[in-house]
Amino acid sequence: MATASLSEGTAASILNRAGPQGDLADLCATLGDFELLAFQVSSLKMDTLEKEAGVLKEVLDRIAPLVPILSKKYEAFYRPVLVVLTQRDEIPLPRSEGAYFFSEHRLALYEDGSLVRTHRFGQWTGGPQPGWELAEEDELTPDAAIAAFGLPAIAEGFIKAFQEAHSTTILKDELEGRLAALTRVLEVIQ
Fold first, then answer.
1. 45: number of Cβ within 10 Å
2. String of b and e for 152-163 (b: at least 16 CB within 10 Å)?
3. Backbone φ/ψ region at 109: left (φ over 0), alpha (ψ -120 to 50), beta
4. Would the pTM count as exceeding 0.85?
5. DSSP of 145-182, one letter per residue?
6. Which of 31, 67, 73, 89 is most buried, by the most CB atoms less than 10 A from its CB?
7. Torsion sign, CA atoms 23, 28, 33, 34
């Protein structure tokens, strides 16, 4: 019971030092409201991230088989890759014309469905002084990709890839026509 009277005395002391009792009571009530709001916002953020990750997973499952068609470049071992987005920062170096430090984050999708973030960073000199570059590569889950880049940026990257592919993709009818012509040429040669 001594603890109860001590804490009552401490509470009364705090109330007396805080000014009118109404100010401290208002502060406590407002703090309680903000704590509840912060909990609700945190819960909504987690739910949103979970749903966005589910949507991205479905999109990745549908796009991964299309990577060989959409890919404009191949990486080591001839792996088709679709570069979803690239974020690059450059910081010029003082007293060095054309030299800069850089940091680049690239999100890429491979045909096996793996989503990979590559972080390249280094110094470009553009002259006789040596530069340097390092690269780190991490495979990301859909929720980690959303946390790193955001779903709108990832979706925009996929849309740009489809728009670029649309202008360069050979239509099925054209491909079938070319195949028929090649078949006739082979028949004539044989």
1. 10
2. eebbebbeebee
3. beta
4. no
5. HHHHH-HHHHHHHHHHHHHHHHHHPPPHHHHHHHHHHH
6. 67
7. positive
